[in-house]
Structure formats: structure tokens, C-alpha cells
Write a structure and sequence with these properties.
This protein is mainly beta. It has one domain: Sandwich (Jelly Rolls), CATH 2.60.120.200. The protein is built from no helices and 17 strands. A hairpin with a 3-residue loop joins strand 2 and strand 3.
């Protein structure tokens, strides 16, 4: 399985960008974000996402992100599965302040978002992600060296039926802009292995 940048398509353009086979740069526009309803009640659906389409039910996508220019609250970049405004997931690091930033993920089903995070130092300016699909279920992992990946999130997208879109995104929810860089993009067989614990319940 090859990751072909020529298969990528924009859903909303960023401020500017550069795309080559080995490197993608995105410069964000201010006041861009992905969020739906929950807790904050507002709805933002204007972040640029760059994705390819696949009908593969089992795969893994790996990418390295670099974001040394990110210095404003909520600046973020990472992996995404964006089906439509009300059904998507994303994994990224969101800058918070000079002391810490949030490594986390958001899953949005039928127009309601959640947010699962852990605090990490602001000295971290790059992160690898591995996004894996097993039919309607997804796993997001992260790595600081591209070798050892740690699980961030296992989740379900109700509307991930058959053909989906997946890729990368970057945005700046407040009045800021920064350059996000994506490299080491790879599409492989699914690295998220079949569960070997408790047997599944019999379907009624």
C-alpha cells in the first residue's frame, strides 16, 4: 500500500500550503477549528483537512508532525478522519500555554464531540501518529521516535461505512497562525491487531 500525495484532496484550503511526495506544509488561518456542540455549545466546522478516499476496511496510516511555530492557545495539527461536519475524529497536540499543551483526541458522532487529553510539556514540538482502521472502529497511537507507539484512543465512528476519507489537518481556533509540517507519511496493512482477550459476545 503506497501513500500517494496526488490522491489527497482539500476540504477547505488553509492560508497557504506546499505539497511534495515526502513533505507537506500547512500555514493555518486564524479562527479555524473542528468542534461540535458538547460543553462549549458552539459549533466550528471550518478547519482545512487534506484527505484521501479509501474503501479499505483494515489499514494503518503513519505521519510525523512538526509544529515548532505553534505558540498560541489551541493551535493544533495531526491526523483526521473527516466524513462530514457531524461525523469525524482527530488526534493532535493543542498548545495551551508556556507550561503545557494537550496531547489528545476528539471523536464526533452525530454532531456531538468529546475531548480526551493528557498534559505534556511545551518542549515537545514534534509527534508521530498512527491511525488504524478496523471497519467502523479506529485506533489512534502516538510516538516520539516513530518506532514505539503508545495507544491514545480506541473509538467507533457510526457513519464510517465502507468508503471513508482520512488524512491530516491543521488549524488555529483563536487569532493566530502557524506552520505545520508533515513528513514520513506511510500507508500499510493494519498494525492494530485483532483483540486476543475476552471473546466477543454472541450477537442476538
Amino acid at each position: 500500500m503506497n501513500f500517494d500525495v496526488h490522491a489527497l484532496q482539500w476540504t477547505r484550503n488553509p492560508k497557504s500550503y506546499m505539497i511534495s511526495q515526502d513533505r507537506i506544509e500547512i500555514v493555518t488561518l486564524p479562527h479555524t477549528d473542528l468542534w461540535q456542540r458538547t460543553y462549549y455549545h458552539f459549533r466550528n466546522d471550518n478547519a482545512p483537512v487534506l484527505q484521501m478516499t479509501t474503501e479499505e476496511s483494515f489499514f494503518s496510516f503513519v505521519v510525523k508532525t512538526e509544529f515548532s511555530e505553534s505558540h498560541h492557545r489551541f493551535d493544533q495539527c495531526g491526523v483526521v478522519v473527516y466524513l462530514d461536519a457531524e461525523n469525524w475524529l482527530k488526534g493532535s497536540i493543542e498548545y495551551e500555554n508556556e507550561r503545557f499543551q494537550h496531547l489528545g483526541s476528539v471523536v464526533t458522532n452525530h454532531g456531538y464531540s468529546d475531548w480526551a487529553t493528557t498534559e505534556i510539556p511545551t518542549s515537545v514540538t514534534s509527534m508521530w501518529y498512527r491511525l488504524s482502521r478496523r471497519e467502523k472502529d479506529f485506533c489512534i497511537e502516538c510516538s516520539e521516535d516513530g518506532i514505539t507507539f503508545r495507544q491514545m484512543r480506541i473509538c467507533h465512528l457510526h457513519e464510517a461505512k465502507g468508503q471513508i476519507r482520512f488524512g491530516i489537518y491543521a488549524c488555529s481556533p483563536e487569532d493566530s497562525s502557524f506552520r505545520a509540517t508533515f513528513t514520513n507519511m506511510e500507508l500499510t496493512e493494519c498494525k492494530w491487531l485483532t483483540h486476543d482477550g475476552q471473546a466477543p459476545d454472541e450477537e442476538l
